[in-house]
Structure formats: structure tokens, C-alpha cells
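Appendix B. Chain record.
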Amino acid sequence: MAIFEPSKADASPLMEIEDLVIRFPIRKGGKRAFITPVDHVSFSLRESEVLSIVGESGSGKSTIGRTLVRVNVPSHGRVLYQGRDVSHIKGAELRLYRSAIQMIFQDPFGSLNPVRTVEQHLTFPLRKYEQVTGDKLSARIDELLGRVGLTPVRETRSKYPHELSGGQRQRVAIARALAVGPRVLVADEPISMLDVSIRAGILELMNELKRDFRISFLYITHDLASARYFGDRILVLYGGRVMELAPSSELIRNPLHPYTRLLLAASPGNPSRGPLPETSNSAPNLLEGRRGCPFADRCPLVTDVCRDEVPDLVDHGTSQLRHFVACHHA
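C-alpha cells predicted for this chain:
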């Protein structure tokens, strides 16, 4: 278990994703081809940091999250955890890694077994990863339920998922992820299927976990408002590529990429909201070997160079405030 002990160098990233590519085979014109929903993506995640990944459906957000927990295996590039490449580990090493990197899914009902009680959902990971039994197991279940705000604990333990509200089910899912003592939580749109009135409570709970346990979050969302509220940094993704990456307040205050500006203009309550000057509403081309910027067909600033050359992700910020953008006209 030593390979996943906490790093002594606090300044070092906890996780690093280097030039990540995910390919899936498809049939096109009767022939085999590939799409790349994640196309040469790189970023890092520090201890107790929240990195929000925003973008519309099909941008590759969930594919990245599933790759971090090793549901998907990278086609190219590396996933580093505490400096060690975990892209292709197997067996006991993979099981240990998955105890350090847990996922909270979008649908809190679909992610829970309908024929198991709350107690049974928490018992399995505690026995498998923590090897606790008897009174210690019961005490840990009570502790986890209390920590995520599911009280009275004794009453909650015996309930089935259909007896809980959407917010309560998501709290059970969070408690289950916490049971194995993770250092990173991949939260894949954890509030999008919940009532507006209880979304803030789930975000506040995750904020408390970040603060109290120094847990890092990869927060996947299409909602810029929650991305700013919860995230330390925001990464904007489109067509599988990084469009922009900056501290949350900086990106909202000073968006440099046309796609980020369009997202802000479409956000309810944003003062800049208005008509969207898009040239098209077509989905991005994800075929392997595509040319140019994936946003070129929809960009109001498009020129010939945008259609021919993929823009590099360049730092347009300062030494104190790094602001990366991939745009020929930034």
C-alpha cells in the first residue's frame, strides 16, 4: 500500500493528466473509423483543490472522469497519481488506486442498488477495503451517515433507495465514496438531477469534505455558476479539447475564448446574457484526424487558419495568475 501514501511535497500535483487521448471505434461508410472524444488533454490537480470541467453535452467531460477512475483506459498519454503512471496498472494495484480515486455519479438512483439498504451499500466497501467488522463496522456506518447529514442515522440505515429523496440518495452515494478514504473524488454532474432547492446543500457538503479531509475534486458540470462557486479553477472543454483554463474568478471576469464567452452569454442571471453570435449550432466533429480548431464551425471569429491549424494552449496570464487559452485570436 506504500505506493499511494501521501506525498511529502505539498507543492507537487496530486494528479497529472498528460496528453490524454481516448479513442472509440465506429462504423463510417461501412468501414471502421475512430472518434476521439478526448483529444490531447492535459491538466493537473493539487491536494484539496477543486478543478471544475465545464462544457456542453458531448464535450468529453464524463469520458475524462471515467478515465481517471480507470473505467476507460487511455489510448495515448498518461494519468499520473503522486508522480506514478497508473494508466495501465492491474490487479491489486488497480484496486488500491480505486480506493484513492472514487466517483460520484450523476444519477443518484441509478448508481444505487434498489434491492439493498443504505446499510448494505456502506457495508460492502468498508469490509472490502477497510476490513472492519462487528461493532467497528456499525460505528463506521453511523459515522459516515452522520457526516453526510443523513439523520436520524438508525432510521436511515434500514431504508432502501426508493424510500429516499434525490438529495438523500446522493448523500448516500457520497458516503459510500467516503467509506474507503479517498483522496480524489470525481463528481460527475452530482447536482444536475436534483431539485434546485437542495443543490446548494450538496455543494456545501462537498465543500466541507474538501476542507475537513483535504479531498481534491474533479467537478464535472455544464453549469458555470456552480463551477465558479465550488471550483478553484475552471477548465473549459469543447469537442474533446481544452479551450481555456484559469482560476475561476479570473475566467468568469475575463473570458478569452469565444466559446467561453458564448457559455457565459447563455448563462441565466449573467449580466452579459444576450443573443448568441454563433455561425452554426452543429455538433463538433470528433473523427480522428480532423483538422483545425474543433470550435471553428461555430466561432464568430473564425478565419482560414482556424480551420487548418489546431491552436496551441498558450498562457496569456501573468506569473502570479496563469490563464491558458487555445485560440488563434485570443
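Further analysis of this model is presented in Appendix C.
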